[in-house]
Design a protein that fits this description.
There is one protein chain. With 507 residues, the protein is an alpha/beta fold. The protein folds into 2 domains: 298 residues, TIM Barrel; 189 residues, no CATH class. The chain has 24 helices and 10 strands. An 8-stranded parallel β-barrel has the order 1-2-3-4-7-8-9-10, surrounded by 4 helices. A hairpin with a 3-residue loop joins strand 5 and strand 6. The radius of gyration is 23 Å and the shape is globular. The chain starts with 6 loop residues before the first strand and ends with a helix.
């Protein structure tokens, strides 16, 4: 069996600072090739190559092998380190759907490049991740298209009575793995069904189910997103026990607690919370907003970590978990409706780090909101709230009272072991003054402000002191007040960036 990567480097645009190899204000295609090489050299063994919502360099394998021949002879693509595509989901992306064809067609060409470099070799690209997976049928459509169209056309006749493969060569690899990237609550709750349905129709040696920690946070809040990860792991364990096929789950998180909290200063707590995953994905902030030595040490710790065995929950435990999710997500979503205006105003000032096309997040598709409620992607959503002194971690936390009244408080303490620590991490970023100014300027309504103040009081009830406790946090609060007071001036993006550098992440 091939090696299962431990550390995936991604292209999520959440870094406050840009690395030295980026020449301009955003990552170019050449910069992303350099990024992949850099990721492998600091210890990552997988690079996500993102086709979703942006321009893509289809010659990544050729460029990597040409850039550092010695390194890639010692660290072979497809054996020691891996390129994994994230393709658009044709059932969601609309105008981008035909990029799936382009992505899958490029896999055999990249194989030919690697074969010329290595001689006999493993395929450099053997898996694709399918975002917003909601059913096993979606996964099967990807694998069947690749096998039946991309590969099988090698047997098509061309002029002269020969087959296509006799003219331009065989198409390899013959199969491609499909990683389900599961993002919405209904699909997370049906993880076992998705995996089981796929394996009932596909002879796979293993699966790599991937849960989206950022989009669950955006849609349901800090506490529900953390608990849904635990439910997901229970489903993975149940599917593995039922099918007998090994499952190697993937978790991608941001550096701040709202989107998971994976950064060099929080590795021990992170692994205590999320130690049952096989692969951890490092986003841009965790790689570029911290000292290189700290990043290397973090990667080494993640690699040496002994993976906890995911356990299937009992029915009572699952009901208790879902009760907490319901109690918290309702309050969170009500508040986000009231914050949508300020988020959309500020997010337009948040700097871009990657060149992306328009992408509508899950809020745009949610039936629980009116058509008028639209939000940016999770990173800019979070960045907007941090920038006005309102860390998204605290939104809806006053729903703790509802969890207590339903008898689920003890379950929360056990299922989310680092809740108090995560809230304490961002407590110094809360600026009551900036939030009040935002209300006075009409960016936040009074009813929403009242609910936010309830959440701040709930955080304080944990014994957590709200407000700046360090010089850096004081500077962050000052910037938050300047941002909301002068949202229309030409310096607001610079201030947002400066604040992001203090907390070491955009969002």
């Amino acid at each position: 069996m091939r090696k299962i990567p431990a550390i995936m480097s991604t292209q999520h645009p959440d870094c406050a600072s840009l690395p030295d190899f980026v020449k301009g204000d955003i990552f170019s295609n050449d910069d992303e090739v350099a990024e992949a090489a850099n990721a492998f050299k600091i210890g990552c063994d997988e690079q996500l190559w993102d086709w979703e919502g942006k321009e893509v360099d289809t010659h990544v394998v050729r460029k990597l092998l040409s850039a550092d021949e010695r390194f890639f002879r010692e660290n072979a693509l497809g054996k020691d380190v891996f390129i994994t595509y994230r393709i658009p989901n044709p059932e969601v992306e609309g105008a981008e759907r035909k990029l799936v064809v382009e992505a899958l067609e490029s896999i055999p060409r990249n194989f030919d490049v690697a074969k010329k470099f290595y001689g006999n070799c493993e395929p450099p690209i053997i898996e694709v991740a399918l975002p917003m997976t909601t059913s096993h049928e979606q996964m099967l459509r990807v694998s069947s298209y690749y096998e039946n169209v991309v590969v099988n056309k090698e047997n098509m006749p061309v002029y002269g009575g020969i087959k296509l493969k006799e003219w331009i060569g065989e198409f390899n690899p013959k199969t491609v793995g499909v990683i389900p990237l599961i993002e919405d609550m209904q699909s997370i709750l049906n993880t076992k069904g998705i995996l089981g349905g796929f394996l009932a129709n596909k002879n796979a040696e293993y699966t790599r189910p991937w849960i989206a920690r950022s989009d669950t946070a955006l849609n349901y809040g800090l506490v529900p997103s953390t608990l849904l990860v635990k439910f997901f792991l229970s489903c993975v364990a149940a599917s593995e026990a039922e099918t007998g096929v090994p499952h190697y789950p993937i978790l991608a998180t941001g550096a701040m607690p709202f989107r998971g909290g994976l950064n060099p200063d929080n590795v021990e707590n992170f692994l205590e919370e999320y130690g049952a995953f096989k692969t951890y994905a490092l986003q841009s902030s965790a790689k570029y907003d911290f000292e290189r030595e700290k990043v290397a040490k973090m990667i080494d710790s993640l690699k040496k970590h002994s993976q906890h065995k995911a356990k299937e929950m009992g029915e009572d435990e699952k009901r208790g978990l879902l009760g907490i999710v319901e109690a918290f997500s309702g309050g969170y979503r009500k508040r986000v409706e009231g914050l949508a205006h300020v988020v959309n105003v500020v997010s337009g000032k948040v700097p871009n780090r990657r060149s992306r096309h328009l992408h509508i997040g899950l809020f745009g598709y949610s039936r629980n909101f009116s058509d008028s409620v639209k939000l940016p992607r999770a990173i800019k959503f979070a960045a907007s709230l941090y920038s006005i002194g309102l860390p998204p971690e605290i939104i809806g936390i006053s729903s703790l009272n509802a969890a207590e009244s339903s008898g689920n408080k003890n379950g929360l303490d056990r299922l989310y072991v680092n809740l108090k620590g995560d809230l304490a991490t961002v407590s110094g970023l809360v600026s009551k003054s900036a939030i009040k100014i935002a209300c006075e300027k009409g960016l936040i309504g009074q009813e929403t402000l009242d609910m936010v103040n309830e959440d701040i009081e709930a955080v304080e009830s944990f014994g957590i002191e709200i407000g700046a406790k360090t010089l850096e946090e004081e500077q962050h609060q000052l910037l938050a007040k300047q941002i909301v007071s002068n949202i229309g001036d030409g310096k607001v993006t610079d201030r947002i960036t400066e604040a992001a550098k203090i907390r070491k992440s955009l969002g």
